[in-house]
Structure formats: structure tokens, C-alpha cells
Design goal:
about 70 residues; mainly alpha
């Protein structure tokens, strides 16, 4: 997990692309989550949005495993 603004955010994205880590863009969610500290609990009103992110991550992981299995 990473959090950054400006040049730091650009570097995080650069590293993700370099390592073939999928990037999902949701500016509204970024705006809300950027106000939280990394170790802060997620407010209940954001559970659905975070669940959607987790579903995206799980789906992406599954696709990655399938590609690895095919060789």
C-alpha cells in the first residue's frame, strides 16, 4: 500500500507500471481516502467502495495466476 501526492504519487505509479501492477483510477475515492492516515480505520460509509477495490484486486490476482499456470 502506498500514499503520495505530486512527485511521490508519480513515482508510485511509475513503480507499479514497471512491475506490471494494475492501476485502477477512481478520483472520487482517491479524494476521500487521501484524507485518511495509512493506519487509520476505514469509516463504515466507505466499506462498499473499499469492497469494490478488494474485488478488483482479487479478480486481478486470479487473472495473474491463470496466466502463470498457462506458462
Amino acid at each position: 500500500m502506498a500514499k503520495g501526492k505530486g512527485r511521490m504519487a508519480e513515482r508510485i505509479i511509475e513503480l507499479a507500471r514497471k512491475h506490471d501492477i494494475p492501476i485502477r483510477t477512481d478520483y472520487a475515492l482517491v479524494h476521500v481516502l487521501s484524507k485518511l492516515d495509512l493506519d487509520q480505520q476505514i469509516p463504515p460509509e466507505l466499506y462498499r467502495a473499499v469492497a469494490e477495490i478488494l474485488a478488483f484486486v482479487y479478480s486481478t490476482n486470479e487473472k495473474y495466476r491463470e496466466r502463470q499456470d498457462r506458462g
